[in-house]
Amino acid sequence: MNIKRFPLGTLWTNCYLIWDDSGDGFVVDPGGPAKEVEDFIRSHDIRVKWIILTHGHNDHIGGVSELRNLSENGVAVHEDDADCLTSAQKNLSTFMGAEVEVASADRLLRDGERLTVGGMTLDVIHTPGHTLGGICIVVTDGGEQILISGDTLFARSIGRSDLPGGDEDTLIESLRKLDGLPLKMRVFPGHGPETTIGAEKQYNPYWPR
Prior knowledge:
Elements: E1 2-8, E2 13-19, E3 24-28, H1 35-43, E4 47-52, H2 58-61, H3 64-67, E5 75-78, H4 82-86, E6 107-109, E7 114-117, E8 120-126, E9 135-141, E10 144-150, E11 153-154, E12 157-158, H5 168-176, E13 186-189, E14 195-196, H6 197-203
């Protein structure tokens, strides 16, 4: 499994490009101007199968339109955040000074769904609390597994729950869905540095005890 991180936009949202050794890959959360991502995809001949959004906030969807033509299957988002793509008010860009709206998603995801990209499997975990349709994704490639956590889980913190669609109690319950994951599993959040499940269970003050 190959992983390339691109901090994009004014909030330095982590966009991830993940691909297997055969060159099949997917993009997660292109949140801002994405020319660097496009150039990398083209120069490495990566076949992008999906653009997957961990949720619908504007800082995670801002570069979708730039990359959409590179995605074989289009854009996927959880069904509960589908309206965020087409509504500047719901994705909160109305309040950020520059409205962002993109075309509707090509696939609406639900909890427990599995996508296949080349030799990788992507298992969707619905983790509301930051938004109604927030998700985490367990990516498996052979014996390697990682978690893409969006704004559900950060290193030593969690996403905001005071925005529309957010609820702290719901977000804490969502963390319980991650409790059984391997302690050594690497976690790639929507903002900030990489961490592990074990480190968050030990040091994250929000982790449910």
